[in-house]
Write a structure and sequence with these properties.
By secondary structure, this protein is mainly alpha-helical. It has one domain: NusB-like (N-utilizing Substance Protein B Homolog, Chain A). The protein is built from seven helices and no strands. α3 packs across α5, α4 packs across α5 and α6 packs antiparallel against α7. The radius of gyration is 14 Å and the shape is globular.
């Protein structure tokens, strides 16, 4: 498992934990000892980036997740997509397909059997249309 894959999984864990505890993910990050997570860590970059762009990311999920309400969507899937959308839209040095493939792989590991194909569809649509999406 690559360092980036581990960072993505840790970011999913942080976002999921924050959502379940109903606290701000940045507050959760700050509560952890510095030895556990440094600012240069990619997990930190992902959690901070998702939180900074959360409103737009959630708007895109709602728009392109046809027939799914954010409240009905499994929390793990929401957070996997949030991370991938942050990478697709705001991490320019990363190829979109890598972000999509990583999200699908993580979903296959930790979420439901149907999640990976659903996540692939949403992320694929956003990736194809990203040039026209106002950020």
């Amino acid at each position: 498992m690559t360092a980036r894959r581990k960072a993505r999984k840790r970011a999913v864990d942080f976002l999921y934990e924050a959502e379940m505890k109903k606290i701000d993910p940045l507050q959760l990050l700050e509560s952890r000892p510095p030895s556990e997570l440094s600012q240069g860590d990619y997990t930190h970059t992902l959690v901070v980036g998702v939180q900074e762009h959360r409103r737009k990311i959630d708007e895109l999920i709602t728009t392109y997740a046809q027939g799914w309400d954010m409240d009905r969507m499994p929390a793990l899937d929401r957070n996997i997509m949030r991370i991938a959308l942050f990478e697709i839209l705001w991490q320019g040095e990363l190829d979109d397909q890598i972000a999509i493939d990583e999200a699908i792989s993580i979903a296959e590991e930790i979420s439901t059997a149907e999640s990976s194909s659903y996540i692939n569809g949403v992320l694929g649509r956003v990736s194809m249309l990203k040039a026209a999406i106002p950020l």
